[in-house]
Amino acid sequence: MKIAAEQIASVLGGEIVGNPAVEVNTLAKIEEGTEGSISFLANPKYAHHIYTTKASVVIVNKTFEPEHPVSATLIKVDEAYKAFSKLLEYYNQVKLMKSGIEQPSVISEGVEYGEDLYLGSFCYIGKNVKIGNNVKIYPNTFIGDNAQIGDNTVLFAGVRIYSETVIGQNCTLHAGVIVGSDGFGFAPNEDGTFNKVPQIGNVIIEDNVEIGAASTIDRATLGSTIIRKGVKLDNQIQIAHNVEIGENTVIASQTGVAGSTKIGKNCMIGGQVGIVGHITIGDNVRIQAQSGVTKNLENGAAVQGSPALPHSDFLKSYSYFKNFSKIVSDIDSIKKKINE
């Protein structure tokens, strides 16, 4: 898709210096710009690139005044970095601006859907599903019976939504996400075998949630597994049955949260964190990568290690651990002198 500099300036509220009709069709770093690309200059450290870049259009701050001739068309804005971020968002929206129902696909009886639905080929929509306006469902996606999907939500290719799941507005589920699969519930028998405990709850995902590729969220045994509004989950995350994650919490890749744990608002959880079940983590908690959390954490806690310690304690302990062999050697030397 090609777009002219004057259209971009209109979107960004910027002023054009150069050719308003020049067209671009891709985005690039300023040092890697090619003909037909658009870039930005926000950091003065990269200013020298603007005189050599082959990008057709460059977004710059209004305060920028070139010291040498510039071949690119400039779009002057208040803050170049923010403007470029806005352009990325606009570009993404245009790229996803699809509609229509491709074939083959299956829409079961009782399905209700709003305007501007995009349904890719080889999708299956179960009975009595309700889908809002401007929803984009990419190919090879499954949506089980009685599920609900809010306005402006995007389900990328291969997403699996089990029955009874509720997904809010403006959500994004990336490829391979599975929502609503059974929680891990088994009751042991005397002979060492296990009986499966039926998982009859559901998953509720509120508005403005993004879930990374290949992440899984289990349905509740009873009640609901709940992902509150504004939560951002990275790729390959496991959320077990009856977990609740508070508003605007962010969790990095390969983290696992065991059943019935409650996580508060505005938490930041690093990659490869393991959190045991049936505990409560307060608001504004920071958990460093590869930590193992085994007990409740109060509001504002910052922890690291496995089992997790207060972050400052972990750093002190680690400094001792690094010198452990020297410490042992010193102790042995002291013991030797005492014995003598």
Describe this structure in words.
Pathway: Bacterial outer membrane biogenesis; LPS lipid A biosynthesis. Belongs to the transferase hexapeptide repeat family. LpxD subfamily. Catalyzes the N-acylation of UDP-3-O-acylglucosamine using 3-hydroxyacyl-ACP as the acyl donor. Is involved in the biosynthesis of lipid A, a phosphorylated glycolipid that anchors the lipopolysaccharide to the outer membrane of the cell. Helix content is 15%, strand content 29%. With 340 residues, it is an alpha/beta fold. It has 2 domains: 3-95, 3-Layer(aba) Sandwich (Udp-n-acetylmuramoylalanyl-d-glutamate--2,6- Diaminopimelate Ligase, Chain: A, domain 1); 100-314, UDP N-Acetylglucosamine Acyltransferase, domain 1 (3 Solenoid), CATH 2.160.10.10. The termini are far apart. The chain has 4 helices and 40 strands. Strand 39 (302-304) and strand 40 (309-310) form a beta hairpin.
Structural class: alpha/beta
Helix content: 10-25%
Do you know the CATH topology of the largest domain?
A: UDP N-Acetylglucosamine Acyltransferase, domain 1
CATH class of the largest domain: Mainly Beta
> What is the CATH architecture annotation of the largest domain?
3 Solenoid
Strand percentage, roughly? Answer: 25-35%
Largest beta-sheet details? 12 strands, mixed
Instruction: Specify Rg, calculated over alpha carbons.
Output: 27 Å
| Nearest-integer average pLDDT | 94
**Strand order of the biggest β-sheet:** 8-11-14-17-20-25-28-31-34-37-39-40
Distance between the terminal alpha carbons, to the nearest Å?
A: 85 Å
Care to count the β-strands? 40
What is the H level of CATH, i.e. the homologous superfamily of the largest domain?
Hexapeptide repeat proteins
The DSSP helix count reads 4
Low-confidence stretches: none
> What's the shape?
flat
What is the number of independent domains? Answer: 2
Family: Belongs to the transferase hexapeptide repeat family. LpxD subfamily.
Function: Catalyzes the N-acylation of UDP-3-O-acylglucosamine using 3-hydroxyacyl-ACP as the acyl donor. Is involved in the biosynthesis of lipid A, a phosphorylated glycolipid that anchors the lipopolysaccharide to the outer membrane of the cell.
Domain UDP-3-O-[3-hydroxymyristoyl] glucosamine N-acyltransferase non-repeat region: 22-89
Pathway: Bacterial outer membrane biogenesis; LPS lipid A biosynthesis
